[in-house]
Amino acid sequence: MSLAITYLSTPLGWLRLEGESMGLSRLDFVEGPSSDTINSESLQRAIEQLNEYFEGTRKEFKLYLSPSGTHFQKNVWAAVSRIPYGATCSYEDIAKALGDIKVIRAAAAANGRNPLPIVIPCHRIIGKDGSLTGYSGGLWRKKWLLELESREKQPTLW
């Protein structure tokens, strides 16, 4: 498997995309591109879909993903991936979807380690009271993403 790294300028700043033949494995908010770009053509589909998302024409990503994480983290990320565009839910909702209300804190920690923000839409997790909660890219980015998606408001998932 050969590693690919590229950078994408977005309305939220620069994103660093990393992947291999098995799929997109990391997406990070960064200050700007660096010289570590490698074989960026293999990430072209991800770039196209992210651009469509930011333009408001894509509501669902159709990408091969290969995030690194524990079995539990991957289960949390799969649950988060089922939150539809424009919808939100709480960590309690995620814990219930996983079948165990007692895993709220563990689900929050796993969500905080999401290596593919935006694509695995962790920005759609909000406080039970409707407040914004932490986001790896900063709350201003989370607010921006939720506002982008709220242009076509949908009901909450759970």
Summarize the structure in words:
The chain is of the alpha+beta class. A hairpin with a 2-residue loop joins β2 (13-20) and β3 (23-30). The termini are far apart. The longest helix has 12 residues, at 44-55. α3 packs across α4. A three-stranded antiparallel sheet has the order 1-2-3, covered by helices on one side. The radius of gyration is 15 Å and the shape is globular. The protein contains five helices and three strands; from the N terminus they run βββααααα.
Topology diagram in text:
Layout: E1 4-10, E2 13-20, E3 23-30, H1 44-55, H2 71-81, H3 91-97, H4 104-112, H5 139-149
Antiparallel strand pairs: 1-2, 2-3
How would you describe this structure in keywords?
158 residues, alpha+beta, three-stranded antiparallel sheet, 5 helices
- DSSP, total strands: 3
* Shape field: globular
Order of helices and strands: EEEHHHHH
Instruction: List the total number of helices.
Output: 5
Helix content: 25-40%
Mean pLDDT: 92
Radius of gyration: 15 Å
Main structural class:
alpha+beta
Q: For the report, how would you describe the main beta sheet?
A: 3 strands, antiparallel
State the strand order across the main sheet.
1-2-3
Low-confidence stretches: none
Beta-strand fraction estimate: 5-15%
* CA(first)-CA(last) distance: 38 Å
